Amino acid sequence: MAETAYIAKMAETVSNDLFRWFKWDVLIPRDMNFSCHKGVKHSSSSKEKNTHPVDVIFKYTDPYSGKDILFNTDLKSYKKGSIGNNNVRDALYSLARTIECADGSNEWRTKYAMNSKNYEIRGLLFVYNHDGIYDRTFIEAFKPKVSSKGKVSAGVKIGNVPLRKDQQLHIIEPLRNLRISP
């Protein structure tokens, strides 16, 4: 197994340990793709998008609504210097497209929502810092940078994340938990 595979496995191991304490279920299969039915709309280029990733699905039953909450989870394992605007933005955009497509996908429903009659699909970005030295506030990735000439660049603009009104993304990052809703 290559070194990068071990690094990726770390996020999986940590998330499993963490969510076991929450008594969340882990649904099988893991590390699979499902077919995209939105085509070019979900592509970041002019080519049609063929699949969306599913690293893992975590499930719990909301005690207030009685709904099964199914977290389509993207596990990211980054070193300190890799946790930045571009990586966070790309992961959020991809996850938003994934849960939009999952919501209308018979393939996704058959694999993951098979025993759930009343459920909601949410996205969960789990960011693990594998070198253990990340010490910044994660929210910095969302703040735009202003150059000495006053030009605004970078930053993750929440309003541009392609979420439908009824969708939610959650972020578990090295130092705190964030929730994004349109």
What does this structure look like?
This protein has one domain (3-180). Helices cover 25% and strands 28% of the residues. It has helices at residues 3-22, 85-103, 106-112, and strands at 25-27, 32-35, 51-54, 56-61, 68-78, 119-129, 145-146, 152-153, 169-172, 177-180. A 6-stranded mixed β-sheet has the order 1-4-5-6-9-10. It has a two-stranded antiparallel sheet with strand order 2-3. A two-stranded antiparallel sheet has the order 7-8. Strand 7 and strand 8 (152-153) form a beta hairpin. The longest helix has 20 residues, at 3-22.
Proportion of beta-strand residues:
25-35%
Lateral strand order in the biggest sheet: 1-4-5-6-9-10
What is the gyration radius calculated from CA atoms? 17 Å
How many H/I helices?
3
Q: Calculate the mean pLDDT score and round it.
A: 80
Coarse morphology: globular
The helix-strand sequence is HEEEEEHHEEEEE
Distance, first to last CA: 40 Å
Q: Structural class given helices, strands, pairing?
A: alpha+beta
Q: Kindly give the count of domains.
A: 1
Which ranges are low-confidence, i.e. pLDDT below 50, for 5 or more consecutive residues? none
Oligomer: single chain
Number of strands: 10
What is the share of helical residues? 25-40%
Short description:
By secondary structure, the chain is α+β, with helices and mostly antiparallel strands. The chain has helices spanning 3-22, 85-103, 106-112; strands at 25-27, 32-35, 51-54, 56-61, 68-78, 119-129, 145-146, 152-153, 169-172, 177-180.
